[in-house]
């Protein structure tokens, strides 16, 4: 799959971190939030989501008030959150730098 996705990249660069980064970026470009079941449901496609998913959406935007932290087109605040991991070093993720060996 790397050969197909990265056909222009020399083999010496394809199977190292650079190739993985390019492959992940290529994959991420295929993810379209407008094609997500939730987005289709918002456009009145009642069959796009199950009844349980619809109930979850109503809860998200209703009494749970999830939307107060999860907002914008992606329903993410684009902030770092370390929820539910008591042993997770928040300072590492919050200050992520690819140049830091601890990362």
Topology summary:
Elements: H1 2-5, H2 11-14, H3 17-28, H4 37-42, H5 51-61, H6 90-94
3D structure, described in words:
By secondary structure, the chain is an all-alpha fold. The chain contains 6 helices and no strands. It has a domain at 1-31. The protein has helices spanning 2-5, 11-14, 17-28, 37-42, 51-61, 90-94. The radius of gyration is 19 Å and the shape is elongated. The chain starts with a helix and ends in a 9-residue tail after the last helix.
Brief account:
It contains six helices and no strands.
What proportion of the residues form beta strands (DSSP E)? under 5%
Radius of gyration: 19 Å
Q: Terminal Cα separation, in Å?
A: 27 Å
Query: Quick one: how many beta strands?
Result: 0
Please outline the major beta sheet. Answer: none
Structural class: mainly alpha
Multimeric state of these chains? single chain
């Amino acid at each position: 799959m790397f050969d197909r996705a990265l056909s222009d990249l020399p083999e010496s660069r394809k199977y190292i971190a650079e190739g993985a980064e390019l492959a992940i970026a290529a994959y991420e470009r295929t993810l379209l939030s407008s094609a997500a079941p939730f987005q289709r449901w918002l456009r009145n496609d009642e069959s796009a989501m199950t009844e349980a998913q619809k109930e979850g959406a109503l809860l998200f935007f209703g009494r749970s008030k999830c939307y107060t932290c999860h907002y914008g087109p992606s329903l993410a605040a684009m902030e770092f959150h370390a929820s539910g991991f008591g042993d997770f070093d928040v300072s590492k993720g919050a200050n992520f730098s690819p140049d830091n060996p601890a990362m």
